Amino acid sequence: MSRRLLVTGGAGFIGANFVHHWCQVYPDDRVLVLDALTYAGNRLNLALVEGRENFRFVQGDICDRTIIDDLLSTENIDTIAHFAAESHVDRSILGPAAFVQTNVVGTFTLLEAFRQHWEAKAQSSDYRFLHVSTDEVYGSLSADDAAFCETTPYAPNSPYSASKAGSDHLVRAYYHTYNLPTIITNCSNNYGPYQFPEKLIPLMCINTLIGKPLPVYGDGKNVRDWLYVGDHCRALDMVINHSQPGETYNIGGNNEVENLNLVQLLCQMIDELAPDLPVRPTKHLITFVKDRPGHDRRYAINANKIKTQLGWTPSVTIAEGLRLTVEWYLNHRDWWEPLLSAEYQAYYRKNYL
Ligand code: NAD
């Protein structure tokens, strides 16, 4: 079927990559992006699709019910891909209120609006509400624990993960209570083009390129699973098109890496790809800083369900994905330089200095 999609948060990192993917694979589908353009949203992330006949951008807040009602009905939306969120753990520690507002209240507002819209359309079986969430809702693992699966109990530890857990529960409840055709995905750490400079991989790439210290929390031994963003977008496409309503899928790259090892790997790659940098070898920039409060030790994802039920597997290895990402940041100075704004510097000082 051809779809009419509302993509919330489509000017952010994963949302924009998803919009590129969707417009390329389904050029006849209508794609409408709703994004508040917070510090993390950037209209330039959508430059590749702006101007297409089937694409429209609207600046607005997912907590604003009037805008959502209007877009759902005038655009006759049948599918919501919900990415909009406050997404950075460190900022949630410095200021949790925005996380509760956007992630919990915003998701609730979208669910209510979509429920009424879907009921007005005789509860069409083609409708879908995809809620894009995180593996952080499951809490922290120790070295010997089994990876998170879809039935792992929720145990969020940061205001970010708690607000995402709250939104996941609301989405689940709307399926069970109203039969709203929702699907939840919980994915591990993404990386790739268009990721805002505050996140680990772009932070390390950019600081290396400008000769600033590379801040590594604590002992650097926290473990994350990494997935290239394009592989996440392919998984979300499969979920929208082939999953049954009410399902939950874990998505991960099966690439567990300690933070310090990841930073060392990036330094090695950057030394190779950018031989003219002021500080070389760039690993000399690595600086250990005070650990993040409540820092989860390890995340790991068991993605067997999506692999066996929908046939998804990651296509990019971590070595390939990191190289693509480093090359992208090397070639897109004009994209990231303006993002190192006074607001960003103020956040950076509060967080690391
Ligand atoms: P991001 O911070 O890069 O982008 C978020 C986008 O949402 C921005 O464009 C921002 O302007 C927009 N937004 C924020 N508040 C809004 C509001 N009230 N109304 C409308 N738009 C608003 O985030 P991301 O990394 O692209 O993450 C997207 C989604 O994927 C999030 O829900 C996040 O929890 C989830 N997720 C992210 C990762 C990851 O590694 N980045 C992993 C798993 C899940």
From TrEMBL:
<dbReference type="GO" id="GO:0008460">
    <property type="term" value="F:dTDP-glucose 4,6-dehydratase activity"/>
</dbReference>
<keyword id="KW-0520">NAD</keyword>
<comment type="similarity">
    <text>Belongs to the NAD(P)-dependent epimerase/dehydratase family. dTDP-glucose dehydratase subfamily.</text>
</comment>
<feature type="domain" description="NAD(P)-binding">
    <location>
        <begin position="6"/>
        <end position="323"/>
    </location>
</feature>
<dbReference type="Pfam" id="PF16363">
    <property type="entry name" value="GDP_Man_Dehyd"/>
</dbReference>
<keyword id="KW-0456">Lyase</keyword>
<protein>
    <recommendedName>
        <fullName>dTDP-glucose 4,6-dehydratase</fullName>
        <ecNumber>4.2.1.46</ecNumber>
    </recommendedName>
</protein>
<dbReference type="InterPro" id="IPR016040">
    <property type="entry name" value="NAD(P)-bd_dom"/>
</dbReference>
<dbReference type="InterPro" id="IPR036291">
    <property type="entry name" value="NAD(P)-bd_dom_sf"/>
</dbReference>
<dbReference type="InterPro" id="IPR005888">
    <property type="entry name" value="dTDP_Gluc_deHydtase"/>
</dbReference>
